[in-house]
Amino acid sequence: MKLIEAIIKPFKLDEVKDALNEIGITGITVSEVKGFGRQKGHTELYRGAEYVVDFIPKIKLEIAVVDELVSKVVETIVNTAKTGRIGDGKIFILPMEEAIRIRTGEKGGEAI
Amino acid sequence: MKYKMSLVKLLLVALTVLAPFAVLAEEAKAPAAPAAAPAAVAPAAAPAPAAAPAAAAAPAPKNVDPVLNTGDTAWMLAAAALVLLMTPGLGFFYGGMVRSKNILSTLMHSYVAMGIVAVQWAIIGYSLAFGPDAFMGLLGNTSKALMHGLITFKDGAPVYALFQNVPTETGSIPEYVFSLYQCMFAIITVALISGALAERIKFSAWCLFVLIWTTIVYDPLAHWVWMSDGWLFKKGALDFAGGTVVHLSSGISALAAIMFLGKRHGFPTERMAPHNLPFTLLGVGLLWFGWFGFNAGSAIVGPNCSDAAGGLAGLAFTTTTIAPAAAGLSWMIAEWIHGGKPSALGFGSGVVAGLVVITPAAGFVEPGPAIIMGLLAGVICYMGVLMKAKFKYDDSLDVFGVHGIGGTTGALLTGVFATVGATGLLSGNIQQFITQIIAVAAAGGYAFIMTLVIAFILEKTIGLRVEKEDEIIGLDQTQHSESAYN
User: Could you report the predicted ipTM of this complex, rounded to two decimals?
Assistant: First the structure.
């Protein structure tokens, strides 16, 4: 089992979610996050006072999947979240030891 | 220390700019007196027979008893309510520009002014400002304390005193209405100063400041400029709705107060961006709406009995629409060219700048000059606001940049463009322009010095500022034990 973390542009969220639904992913966790990468921040100007905004709003998706699905999920995210411009985001794949469904106590692939 | 030095430098610059004007004023006054004497003699000496019938045809108008004008009264009641609404409007205008941890405290600076000043006005303020003169046109006496005499009883029936602006015209409104209309001006004037002190002043110090400043700065200034026996009024200084009394005085007082208050912790490196610009723009809308009462209502002190709800009010209403419109555009365009983007805050600030600049001129200028004044207002106040970054003083919400500079610009331009009921520089009346400079220097100087004294005394007694830790936590929590957003 793997945990896939994907940082994407906020306006791509719906598209990515629908595409993941189509390939059979039944659950994702979404958070609003801020950060910086190669895409620099922007400046804001209020009555001549200039502030540099370093951290850009992004969306973080967390998707737990069985090993066989990893490449399909990654491919789907890359295809849908891509705009070709700097700041499209990153995908991290982490090993996952266990998954438990709280309601039934099921474990492993069954619980995902 | 460095901070205070730069403020001193700023003052020196202001003084060097004003000094030649003051000298000019003195020089102009000297030859004016002998020149006037022969002019007065000449026509009398030449055609004496012709002058006699002319004088008989136009006898000096006699003083008449006041008659209540219900139309004027209805409008003035509405206008007073409009001016009151400006203070909450100002609260939101300022509140949107502070950080979210300070919005309640910033709103309270305006709201508590409504509480303190309205009570002060009834007890003593009205009498000091609009009571009979106590001393050389400087201050009213205390005969109208507690609004004494505005209502009397004759055989048990109430008799309401009437306010008659021109003794030779019958038109009048109840003095209660006039007094309360003026009360709203006193409230907003001191509230304007709070923008410079926001995010760091102790609430208790603010409350005392409101009371003392209104009593010893605002009330005398209102007497000087608006009361018929005030010394600037007698000099012929033009201030239709409060360019010097309200905006110049609050703007320059803001500058004086921050000399003792100092910068906000973290200024100017820390991010202090406005937390809710929609509030600010809502405030701009409320201010503009209320300003129609402020300016068009000020026709009550115009020269004719029908002016309060007549043509003069219509003119003031017109200029109060077009000058801020032009100023919003000119600030926006100036910022677009200079800063790269036309900001919402910029447009809103421009509207307020235009309102400030047109205030002293509202009923004295025609629409053409009103547009020019508006366009100048936007650009000049934009530069005024940028000055803050250059001189490194922390006028949090640009009270001096907008009201101090805008009020001065408006008062001077009134002396340039006036054509209605007065003449300005462009109509060949140099004396009027000089009178305006004297009024600006006198009102500005008085407000600045007195505010320095008040701020110094408050700083040495109860202290002006909150503790550094409280400032970082935010004034909402530390001064009021509340938070705005839960």
Answer: 0.75
